[in-house]
Design brief:
By secondary structure, the protein is an all-beta fold. It has a domain of 67 residues. The protein is built from no helices and seven strands. The strands form two sheets. A five-stranded mixed beta sheet has the order 2-1-5-6-7, with no helix packed on it. It has a two-stranded antiparallel ribbon with strand order 3-4. Strand 6 and strand 7 form a beta hairpin. The chain is elongated, with a radius of gyration of 22 Å.
Length: 96
C-alpha cells in the first residue's frame, strides 16, 4: 500500500441516510484494508464515515476522511429490466 498520511482512528461510522438501517460504528479489524483507506493526491487517507443515500434508481455512497472531507464517492444505478417486444398483430393459427 502507499504511504498513509494519517493513522486510522480504528472505527468507521456507517450512516444510511435513507433510514433503512440504523447507523453503525464498525471496528476496522472487520473491514478489508482497501475499504479502510482512500487513495488521494497526498497518499492514503483513513475513511472514518460512509454515507449511503438513494434517489430513485440511483444510490450514492460517499466516504469521508478525518477532517470531514469527501475522499471518494461511488454512484450506482439500478438496471431496469429489458423492455418486452411489442405484441404482434398477426393471427396465430393452430393445427388439429
Amino acid at each position: 500500500m502507499a504511504v498513509t498520511t494519517v493513522k486510522h482512528p480504528g472505527k468507521i461510522l456507517f450512516i444510511d441516510a435513507d433510514g433503512e438501517r440504523p447507523d453503525e460504528e464498525v471496528d476496522i479489524s472487520t473491514i478489508p484494508e482497501e475499504f479502510q483507506f482512500a487513495k488521494t493526491k497526498n497518499g492514503l487517507e483513513p475513511i472514518v464515515k460512509v454515507v449511503k443515500t438513494t434517489t430513485g434508481d440511483v444510490r450514492r455512497i460517499s466516504e469521508y476522511g478525518v477532517d470531514g472531507q469527501v475522499l471518494r464517492t461511488t454512484v450506482q444505478t439500478r438496471q431496469r429490466p429489458a423492455a418486452k417486444p411489442p405484441k404482434s398483430n398477426r393471427r396465430k393459427f393452430t393445427t388439429k
